[in-house]
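Holo model, xanthosine-5'-monophosphate. Inputs:
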Amino acid sequence: MTSVDADRVGPSELVLVLDFGSQYSQLIARRIREARVYCELVPGTTPWAELEPRRPAGVVLSGGPASVYQPGAPQVDPALFRSGVPVLGICYGMQLIAHHLGGEVAPADRREYGPALLEVSEPGRLFEHLPARLPVWMSHGDQVRRLPAGFRVLASSANSPVAAFDDGGRLLGIQFHPEVHHTPQGVDILRNFLYRICGCTGTWTPGSFILRATEAIRAQVGDGRVICALSGGVDSAVAATLIHRAVGDQLTCLFVNNGLLRREEPERVLDVLHGSLDLDIRYVDASQRFLSALQGVVDPEEKRRIVGREFIRVFEEEAKALAERRGEIDFLAQGTLYPDVIESTAPETAGAARIKTHHNVGGLPSGLRFRLIEPLRYLFKDEARAVGLELGLPEDLVHRQPFPGPGLAVRCLGEVTPERLEILRAADWVVVDEIKKHGLYRQVWQSFAVLTPLRTVGIMGDDRTYASLVAVRVVTSEDAMTADWARLPHEVLARISNRIVNEVPGVNRVVFDITSKPPGTIEWE
Ligand code: XMP
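Output:
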């Protein structure tokens, strides 16, 4: 499969974030986008000659785990500093500026990690209209010891005499992290850089994205045909809607019921997507096929492989049938988001251990002969949601919590049988219903039930019971990379527990999962 260049649909106003491996690089990009400026992450060591033709309005150098003075530490191409393009170095990025322009970077007397008070002595444009004392978040072991010639100190903290500097013009550095929540005015500092120094005006809006994306899709697809697998989640729905807006009925969607969906899910998804959006959707009920393939399987990775494999088979059969009826299909549309793109290409994650094999509907084999079209490839999840709303998708769909591709198979611990799935569906329904009733659905990242293979002893009326144990998992998270268990009010927990044991036959005990990620994962399998 080849990717489509037209997927890159940023507006003319572009800021590049040169990534030196900080855990916060993605967050920097998100904050810049939130300030309505389009930005992309690129590897920090990319030669400037490759980046300059994109005419960035500004460049941000991210933090990173290395020390700039060590052999082999990633370096920035110094041609950037001669280009006249505004540069903001953050932490390691600031140290790179100092290192390359004749300053000195050395280990700090002590590592500075955590909150600090920034004293601004010279606001310049970076701290314009901000208080002279700002709480900031520090995380560094090295510091700038001597300024490069022509630079001045803008701010300092107790442990960092040079906590911010500039050359009086377009080169600036800050030792703290403006992108994290612990730096409350961080967004204002970034905005000052974008608007006052780079001259950006804030052209990145859902509306401007839709205009550009539809033009790009039209140009790419021409009079070709597109197929898109809908999962019921927000990403594939937004991608399909956008493509439909661009090329109308040249798009056909496929919605496969794998028998692992939640209660009423297939009906509701179809209702919404069919009814209000007028998409051409082919619904395939393949539940029997998936459940037969899963019979007797208890290993989580094996379950994922089977669901992925069966999905591909169904997809291929359906695409073939569709091509026979209505002519060749040229493009496959997917709802891939920017974090997936960053994570699958990030050098520092390339060698990371595989925790779980993720089979999205997107996990299709490279042997398929379609060209790939991924209109959301440069969007963060909240941006995809904003685009969905702008396109008229219902709030309900746009704000749905994520649901794993292998569906209930990885929440039904042990063997996946129709009977056990029914128990799980009923328990899950109660969890989500109560979370919604208490207005918590959009405050948490995910809320669901897990059916364990354990049975415990209980008592109901005068009878002893020996029935299943259900776990309730509710987590908060920004991006699913880390998560914390939600501190639900006790009344909500009590309601959920009480309803599950009363309404779900076969369950006599409910536990609440109080494990964060790491060390746990969000799903139990
Ligand atoms: P974990 O359990 O790894 O989950 O902490 C992180 C996020 O990914 C979702 N998830 C999956 N999504 N296919 C998917 O499409 C999968 O196999 C899969 N496993 C987990 C999970 O729901 C959470 O949002």
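The chain is about 35% helix and 25% strand. The CA atoms of residues 458 and 465 lie 5 Å apart.
Archived with the compound record.
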